[in-house]
């Protein structure tokens, strides 16, 4: 596997631009066959949607290709998870393409916990309408991201696979040819917080004195590099380049780029910046609060106690933002787990959902949160239930007591609650979990060969 992992240069490319591509080792005739089978499925049955892999099972060989697995391991760690949603995208001849958009953009985090994976079964030149992406746009939550740099087409030979940050701005470009263009999209998730590099790392320094990417965002890029290395992100030993008051004002700038520069500069201030940043959560605009959350993560572990205290604030948005920021700190915020558990009774579904999501990253090394997460599986709010299932999946072997609760949601009204429950049982891995999982898979098996013309 080591020879198939991404290099330092490829990881830097991903951190700066938000995407990286690899080529599978599969032969051209394999991809030709996938292309032809996809065309038949579309013509005879329509878009298979989430049933893409069982309908065209040969695609699993792409996902098991050594170069693909190496990239996934490098970016998400060795226990990465292919989520239930997948979708084949069809760009017909003569199409005008799509508008630039994000699939994510709702989470106040820049850390690599989710990926879009694009597989192209045919040669994809610009004329065929490839996926267009905006490098570095994954750091932006507003339309400013769609124009932050020139659009780049993801072109390549059949078998090209692209790995993109879930928040990267992208679109289908116009197909100016007379040939169909297909792209198979998958969602992958990180299940364990980084404890060390999982790529072919040779150099722990971000750039060795040479700027990689935009000079004004070097502190942001370095933060992500250190996060992937599993290192503490705050760097109060470096002399701050601006006063606290100047940086606080910049967090609410009309320019998202200026706000991001200021947010990551707070890593140089360390604990001294905490009162001002917590104040932003209390009184700031949504833009300022989001940038303040990035800044609190740049400060790192020293921010945990102040964020834990903010969980008891009388204002819903303060509790909500504090829970989200603690979750983004991951296992560095493990000491806040009891406080996050306590607010699972909050009247706000948003606060409950973000606290549960935070427990999935902060409490991965113990079963402390499991009883309350089991209770959350019966919450009336779908988002809360889905986050609870996913948190239990991340906790994995420590969530053995959740088997019965997970069994109860295997027939939840939401397809993704069901799908994530399957993976949670797989990661728990006890004999009881395996028994429930096997029984469920036996009774819900979908036959891809059954059609209206061939019912048995």
Describe the 3D structure.
Helices cover 43% and strands 10% of the residues. It has 19 helices and 8 strands. Helix 12 runs parallel beside helix 14 (349-362). The mean pLDDT is 94.
The residue-averaged pLDDT reads 94
Cα-atom Rg, whole angstroms?
Answer: 22 Å
Residues in helices, as a percent range: 40-55%
Please report the number of helical segments: 19
Could you tell me the strand content as a percent range?
Answer: 5-15%
What does the overall shape look like?
A: globular
SSE blueprint:
Blueprint lengths: L7 H10 L1 E5 L4 H18 L6 H4 L3 H5 L2 H11 L4 E11 L22 E7 L10 E3 L18 E2 L6 E6 L4 E3 L8 E9 L28 H12 L14 H8 L4 H10 L8 H10 L2 H14 L4 H7 L5 H14 L7 H6 L6 H14 L7 H7 L5 H14 L7 H6 L6 H14 L2 H13 L13
Antiparallel strand pairs: 1-6, 2-8, 3-6, 3-8, 4-5, 4-7
Helix pairs in contact: 7-8, 8-10, 9-10, 10-12, 11-12, 12-14, 14-16, 15-16, 16-18, 18-19
């Amino acid at each position: 596997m080591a020879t198939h992992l991404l290099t330092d240069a490829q990881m830097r490319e991903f951190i700066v631009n938000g995407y990286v591509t690899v080529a599978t080792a599969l032969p051209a005739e394999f991809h030709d066959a996938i292309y032809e089978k996809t065309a038949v499925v579309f013509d005879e049955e329509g878009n298979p949607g989430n049933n893409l892999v069982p309908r065209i099972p040969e695609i699993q060989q792409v996902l098991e290709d050594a170069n693909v697995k190496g990239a996934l391991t490098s970016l998400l760690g060795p226990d990465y998870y292919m989520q239930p949603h997948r979708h084949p995208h069809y760009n017909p001849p003569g199409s005008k393409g799509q508008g630039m958009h994000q699939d994510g953009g709702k989470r106040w985090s820049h850390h690599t916990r989710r990926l879009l994976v694009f597989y192209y079964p045919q040669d994809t030149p610009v004329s065929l309408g490839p996926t267009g992406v905006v490098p570095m746009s994954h750091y932006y939550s507003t339309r400013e991201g769609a124009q932050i740099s020139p659009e780049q087409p993801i072109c390549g030979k059949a078998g090209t696979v692209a790995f993109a940050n879930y928040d990267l701005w992208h679109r289908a470009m116009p197909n100016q040819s007379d040939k169909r263009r297909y792209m198979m999209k998958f969602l992958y998730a990180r299940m364990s917080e980084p404890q060390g590099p999982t790529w072919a790392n040779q150099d722990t320094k971000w750039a060795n004195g040479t700027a990689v990417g935009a000079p004004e965002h070097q502190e942001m890029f370095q933060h992500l590099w250190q996060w992937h290395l599993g290192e503490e992100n705050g760097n109060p030993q470096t002399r701050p380049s601006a006063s606290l008051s100047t940086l606080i004002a910049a967090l609410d700038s009309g320019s998202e780029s200026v706000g991001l520069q200021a947010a990551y500069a707070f890593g140089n201030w360390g604990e001294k910046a905490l009162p001002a940043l917590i104040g932003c959560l209390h009184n700031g605009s949504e833009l300022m609060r989001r940038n303040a959350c990035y800044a609190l993560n740049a400060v790192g572990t020293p921010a945990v106690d102040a964020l834990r205290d903010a969980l008891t604030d009388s204002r819903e948005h303060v509790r909500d933002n504090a829970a989200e920021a603690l979750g983004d700190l991951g296992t560095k915020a493990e000491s806040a787990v009891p406080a996050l558990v306590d607010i699972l009774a909050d009247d706000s579904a948003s606060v409950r959902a973000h606290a549960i999501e935070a427990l999935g990253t902060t409490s991965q090394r113990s079963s402390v949160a499991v009883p309350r997460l089991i209770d959350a599986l019966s919450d009336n709010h779908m988002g809360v239930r889905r986050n609870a299932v996913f948190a239990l999946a991340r906790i994995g072997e420590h969530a053995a007591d959740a088997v019965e609760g997970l069994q109860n949601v295997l027939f939840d009204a939401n397809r993704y609650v069901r799908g994530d429950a399957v993976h949670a049982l797989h990661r728990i891995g006890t004999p009881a979990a395996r028994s429930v999982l096997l029984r469920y898979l036996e009774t819900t098996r979908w036959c891809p060969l059954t059609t209206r013309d061939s019912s048995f």
